[in-house]
Automatic annotation (TrEMBL):
PANTHER family reported in the protein's UniProt record: PHOSPHOENOLPYRUVATE DIKINASE-RELATED, PYRUVATE, PHOSPHATE DIKINASE 1, CHLOROPLASTIC
Keyword annotations of the record: ATP-binding, Kinase, Magnesium, Metal-binding, Nucleotide-binding, Pyruvate, Transferase
NCBIfam families membership: PRK05878.1, pyru_phos_dikin
Cofactor: Mg(2+)
Domain Pyruvate phosphate dikinase AMP/ATP-binding: from-to ranges: 17-55, 60-284, 293-350
Protein name from the UniProt record: Pyruvate, phosphate dikinase
Domain PEP-utilising enzyme C-terminal: 537-866
Listed Pfam families: PEP-utilizers, PEP-utilizers_C, PPDK_N
EC class (word): transferase
Gene name of the encoded protein: ppdK
Length: 870
C-alpha cells in the first residue's frame, strides 16, 4: 500500500519532491534534534492524484486518522478534546518555493466546545477566543470562499466601537462578540457554515490546500517562473504552538545573514504576543530581532544557536520562522533563504572564505541574471515612490528623465543636457537617435524581444515594453493611464527596467559600483571583491570564449574593458546611418554605373576610417565584420515622408511583401555590383594601415544569410580578387579570413559543403529562429508568441532563450558537419541568445568556441560560461 502520509520524524531534506520543501526541511530539523512541533506530511502524490482524479486517493482518510492518533500521542492531547484540545496547522508546501501563492490554515480543531477547554487549560480566555476568531477567519477565507475584506472590516468596526487602539487590546467579551460576528459573516457569505467537527475542519482544510495548487495566482506564478503544473504541493499538518499566549510569547522570522546585502549577522523581525501570520501581514509593527535579547535573553540565545547550527548544516544562508510560547522556542520552518543579487554574490564568496564551500560551488550559487542586475544602476530602495503603471521588464536599469514622445524631441532635449525618457507606442529603426539620446525607453506595445527591448539591451538603456495600460498620444504630446493622471511632455518619470515599474516624478538613483569596477575604475568594497573573485574563477574554468557585438570603436573599447576577447559581430550597415544615409541613397538611386561607382567611392574612405578605429580599439584581438545585410530600401525614407519622385519610384520598384526573406544578405552582395568590393577594400586597406602602424589584425569577413555553398563561393572569389588587387597596390598581402553566417536552416543542414569555403561560421540565432519557426519576430512577438506563452503552448519565447529541440538541433548538426568537413573551423554565435544565460549553457555544451553579445552582457557571459564549465 502506498504511504500517502509521512511523520516528520521519517524524512529528510533530500525528499523535497515527495514531501515538498517545507515538509522536507521540517523533517530535516527533526533529524537535527531541533525543537519542532510534531506533525506529519501528506505527500505530493496526493496532490497529483487529486489533480488527475478530482479527489484524493481513497486510502488517505484512514492514513490521516492513524497519523492524527500518533500526533495526539506525541503532543499529549487529543484532537477535539473538550478539556485539553490538540490544535493543528494545515500548511501548504510545494517542492519549489512559491511564496504567498498557496494557503495555510492555523488553529484547526477549535469550536464552541474546545475553545472553552483551551481557555480553561491555559487560564486565558482572551487567548482562546483570539485563536478561535483567527481560525474562523482563515477558514472562511481559504476554505469557504468568504471575501477577505469582510472579516477585516468587522474587526475594524469592533476596534472602533470598543474604543481600544489595536486588536491585541480587545477584551475577552469583545473577542466573543467578534467570533459571533465572524461566524455570521461565514454563514452569510461562505459556501457553508463554519464546521464545528474538528476532523471535518481538518479534511476540508487539506482539500483547500490541495485546491490552492490550482488557483489562478498559483498558476500564473508557475507560468512566470517556468514551474511545471503537475508537480503538486504537499500538505503539512502540525501541532500548534502559541505565540499569542501573552507577553512572554511571540512569533518571528530570522535570517542568518542579511538577505539584502549578505553581511553576516542576525536579521529579522519579532512580534510579541502574535501568531506567525501577523509578522508578514504587517498588522502591527514588528521589532528588530536584536530586541528579542532584551525581551527574553534565554530564548534569544537558543534561537541564535539554532541559527548557527542551521547555517552550518545547510552551508548557506537560512531563513527561519519561529514562535516562542511562554519562553519556549519552537522552530516552524527553515529554508535556504531568498536573497538579492548583491547578497547572493556576497554570501557565496564569504562561504568560500569561511571554508564551507569551494569556488565551483560558489559559482553554482550565483547567476548571470543576478550579475546583470548588479551591473545596472538601481533606485534607492528606501526612497518613496508613486507607481504610475507597469510593463514588461525588458532591459534592466533605473532611469529618471523628462518624458518625450519622439526621437527628435529626445535628441533636442538631450542636447540641452536634460535626461529624457523616450515614450513611444513602439519603436522603429528610425527611433535610434532618440533611443541613444534617452536614459530610458518606455513603450506601450511589444515584449522582451521587441525592437525597443533588443536595441535598449544593446545600448545598456533601461527599458520597459508593453505597458498595455498606457495610452500614448504623440500628437497631443501626452500619455495617460486609464483612470490615472495625464503625463505631459517634459514631466519627470522614473522607470525600473529590472521590475517593469513606471513611477511618477523622480526616484533617487544609486549607481552600480560593480559596473564601475568592471569598467576598470579603482573602486573597492566587499561586494566588488566578492564579484571579482567569482568572475575570476569563471574565467579560469570556462572553455567558451566571449566576444562582443560592436560597430564602433567606443563600444569595442568598452567591451574590451569588460572582458571581451574579440568582436564576434560588427554590423556594417550601422556605419551607414546618420548623414551617411544620403550616400547610400545615392547608391540606391544611381541610374548609371558611373553614378553608382561615385557613391561607392565616397563611402569607401568613411568605412575604412571606421575599421581603422575599430582595429585600434581591439588591439590584435579577432574582429568579425559582416558585409551589409538589410534590404537596401531600409535606407530610403518612408513613402509618406517624401515627395521626391525618384525616391518614390525606387520605393515602388524595390517594394517587397516579405523583406525578411527578400533581397538582403548575400543576395544583395551578389545583386549590387561593387558593394562587396567596396566593403572588402575598406576592410583590407584599414587592416594594412593598422599593420603598418605596428598593430596586428586578421579581419574575419562574414557573409550573411548564406543558403548554399555556391553563394559563398561566388562572394568569396570576389573578395579574393579585391584582396589580390589591394596586395598589388600596397606591395604586400593582408591576412584575412572569409566565413559564413549560419542563419538559415538550409545552411545548417548543408554545413559540410559550406564549410569547404568558410574558415569560420557564426550562428545568427535570431534569423535562424525566425526561419526555423517561420515566425517573424517583430510581427509575432506581441501577438502569437505572447498568446502562446499565456496559454502555456510555449514555455518561453524562442527569441529569448534558444529553442534547444529545434534551433538547437540545427546548431548541433551544423557543428558536427562543419567540424567533419573542416576540423579547425572557428565556430561562434552572435545572435541575441549569446547574452542569455540559459542559451550560453547550451552553446557551451554544443561545443562552440565563443559567444558574442552586446558589451554590457560581456561580464554576464563570462560568468555563465564559467558556470557551464563546472
Ligand atoms: P507560508 O508558506 O505562507 O509561510 P506557513 O505554512 O509557513 O505559510 O504558515 C504561515 C504562518 O503560520 C507562519 O508564520 C508560521 O510560523 C505559522 N504557523 C504555521 N504552523 C504553525 C504552528 N503549528 N504553530 C504556530 N504557528 C504556525
Ligand atoms: Mg512560512
Ligand atoms: Mg541575420
Amino acid at each position: 500500500m502506498t504511504d500517502y502520509v509521512r511523520n516528520f520524524n521519517d524524512g529528510s531534506s533530500a525528499e523535497r519532491d515527495i514531501l515538498g520543501g517545507k515538509g522536507a526541511d521540517l523533517a530535516e530539523m527533526v533529524r537535527l534534534g531541533l525543537p519542532v512541533p510534531p506533525g506529519f506530511t501528506i505527500t505530493t502524490d496526493v496532490c497529483r492524484h487529486h489533480l488527475a482524479h478530482g479527489a484524493p486517493p481513497p486510502e488517505l482518510a484512514s492514513q490521516v486518522a492513524r497519523h492524527v492518533a500518533l500526533l495526539e500521542r506525541a503532543a499529549g492531547r487529543a484532537f477535539g478534546d473538550a478539556d485539553d484540545p490538540l490544535l493543528v496547522s494545515v500548511r501548504s508546501g510545494a517542492a519549489v518555493s512559491m511564496p504567498g501563492m498557496m494557503d495555510t490554515v492555523l488553529d484547526v480543531g477549535l469550536n464552541e466546545e474546545t475553545v472553552r477547554g483551551l481557555a480553561a487549560r491555559t487560564g486565558d480566555e482572551r487567548f482562546a477566543l483570539d485563536s478561535y476568531r483567527r481560525l474562523v477567519q482563515m477558514f472562511g477565507e481559504t476554505v469557504l470562499g468568504v471575501p477577505q475584506e469582510l472579516y477585516g472590516a468587522a474587526l475594524d468596526d469592533l476596534v472602533r466601537e470598543t474604543g481600544v487602539g489595536r486588536d491585541v487590546d480587545l477584551s475577552a467579551p469583545s473577542l466573543r462578540l467578534l467570533v459571533d460576528r465572524f461566524l455570521e459573516i461565514t454563514v452569510a457569505h461562505g459556501d457553508r457554515p463554519f464546521p464545528q467537527d474538528p476532523r471535518e475542519q481538518l479534511d476540508l482544510a487539506v482539500r483547500a490546500v490541495l485546491d490552492s495548487w490550482s488557483s489562478e495566482r498559483a498558476r500564473l506564478y508557475r507560468r512566470h517562473h517556468g514551474i511545471a503544473d503537475d508537480l503538486g504541493t504537499a500538505v503539512n499538518v502540525q501541532a500548534m504552538v502559541f505565540g499569542n499566549l501573552g507577553p512572554r510569547s511571540g512569533a518571528g522570522v530570522a535570517f542568518t545573514r542579511d538577505p539584502a546585502t549578505g553581511q553576516l549577522g542576525l536579521y529579522g523581525d519579532y512580534l510579541p504576543n502574535a501568531q506567525g501570520e501577523d509578522v508578514v501581514s504587517g498588522v502591527r509593527d514588528a521589532v528588530p530581532l536584536a530586541r528579542l535579547r532584551e525581551l527574553d535573553e534565554a530564548a534569544f540565545l537558543r534561537l541564535r544557536s539554532v541559527m548557527h547550527g542551521l547555517e552550518r548544516h545547510y552551508r548557506d544562508m537560512c531563513d527561519i520562522e519561529f514562535t516562542i510560547e511562554q519562553g519556549r522556542l519552537w522552530i516552524l520552518q527553515t529554508r535556504v533563504g531568498k536573497r538579492t543579487p548583491a547578497a547572493a554574490f556576497q554570501i557565496a564568496a564569504d562561504l568560500v572564505e569561511e571554508g564551507s564551500i569551494d569556488l565551483d560551488e560558489a559559482l553554482r550559487r550565483v547567476s548571470g541574471d543576478q550579475l546583470a542586475q548588479l551591473l545596472h544602476p538601481s533606485f534607492d530602495p528606501g526612497a518613496p515612490r508613486t507607481l504610475l503603471t507597469r510593463g514588461v521588464a525588458a532591459s534592466p536599469g533605473a532611469a529618471v528623465g523628462r518624458v518625450v514622445f519622439d526621437s527628435a524631441a529626445a535628441v533636442a532635449r538631450a542636447a540641452q543636457g536634460e535626461a529624457v525618457v523616450l515614450v513611444r507606442r513602439e519603436t522603429r529603426p528610425e527611433d535610434l537617435p532618440g533611443m541613444l539620446a534617452a536614459t530610458g525607453i518606455l513603450t506601450a506595445r511589444g515584449g522582451k524581444t521587441s525592437h525597443a527591448a533588443v536595441v535598449a539591451r544593446g545600448l545598456g538603456r533601461a527599458c520597459i515594453c508593453g505597458a498595455g495600460d498606457l495610452d500614448v498620444d504623440p500628437d497631443s504630446r501626452r500619455m495617460t493611464v486609464r483612470g490615472g493622471p495625464v503625463v505631459q511632455e517634459g514631466d519627470l518619470v522614473s522607470i525600473d527596467g529590472g521590475t517593469g515599474e513606471v513611477f511618477l516624478g523622480e526616484v533617487p538613483v544609486a549607481g552600480s559600483v560593480v559596473a564601475r569596477w568592471f569598467d576598470g575604475e579603482a573602486v573597492d568594497g566587499d561586494l566588488v571583491d566578492a564579484v571579482a573573485r567569482l568572475v575570476r574563477h569563471a574565467d579560469a574554468v570556462r572553455t567558451l570564449g566571449v566576444r562582443t557585438n560592436a560597430d564602433n570603436a567606443e563600444d569595442a573599447a568598452r567591451a574590451v574593458r569588460l572582458g571581451a576577447e574579440g568582436i564576434g559581430l560588427c554590423r556594417t550597415e550601422h556605419m551607414f546611418l546618420g548623414e551617411r544615409r544620403t550616400l547610400v541613397q545615392r547608391l540606391i538611386l544611381a541610374d548609371s554605373d558611373a553614378e553608382r561607382d561615385a557613391a561607392l567611392a565616397d563611402l569607401l574612405p568613411l568605412q575604412r576610417a571606421d575599421f581603422r578605429e575599430l582595429f585600434a580599439a581591439m588591439d590584435g584581438k579577432p574582429v568579425t565584420i559582416r558585409l551589409i545585410d538589410p534590404p537596401l530600401h531600409e535606407f530610403l525614407p518612408a513613402e509618406r515622408d517624401t515627395e521626391d519622385e525618384r525616391v518614390l519610384a525606387a520605393l515602388r520598384r524595390m517594394h517587397e511583401d516579405n523583406p525578411m526573406l527578400g533581397l538582403r544578405g548575400v543576395r544583395l552582395a551578389i545583386a549590387v555590383p561593387g558593394l562587396v568590393a567596396m566593403q572588402t577594400r575598406a576592410i583590407l586597406e584599414a587592416a594594412d594601415d593598422h599593420g603598418s602602424s605596428g598593430g596586428v589584425v586578421e579581419p574575419e569577413i562574414m557573409v550573411p544569410l548564406v543558403a548554399t555553398a555556391a553563394e559563398l563561393a561566388s562572394v568569396r572569389s570576389e573578395i579574393e580578387h579585391v584582396a589580390d588587387t589591394v596586395a598589388v597596390e600596397r606591395g604586400r598581402s593582408v591576412a584575412y579570413r572569409v566565413g559564413a553566417m549560419v542563419e538559415l536552416p538550409r545552411a545548417a543542414l548543408t554545413a559540410d559543403r559550406i564549410a569547404e569555403h568558410a574558415a569560420f561560421f557564426s550562428f545568427g540565432t535570431n534569423d535562424l529562429t525566425q526561419t526555423t519557426w517561420g515566425l517573424s519576430r517583430d510581427d509575432t512577438e506581441a501577438t502569437v508568441v505572447r498568446r502562446y506563452l499565456d496559454l502555456g503552448i510555449l514555455a518561453r519565447s524562442p527569441f529569448e532563450t534558444i529553442d534547444v529541440d529545434g534551433v538547437g538541433a540545427l546548431v548541433r548538426t551544423a557543428v558536427e558537419k562543419a567540424r567533419a568537413a573542416r576540423p579547425g573551423i572557428g565556430l561562434g554565435v552572435c545572435g541575441e541568445h549569446g547574452g542569455d544565460p540559459e542559451s550560453i549553457r547550451f552553446f557551451a555544451q554544443a561545443g562552440l568556441d565563443y559567444v558574442s553579445c552586446s558589451p554590457f552582457r560581456v561580464p554576464v557571459a563570462r560568468l555563465e560560461a564559467g558556470r557551464a564549465a563546472i
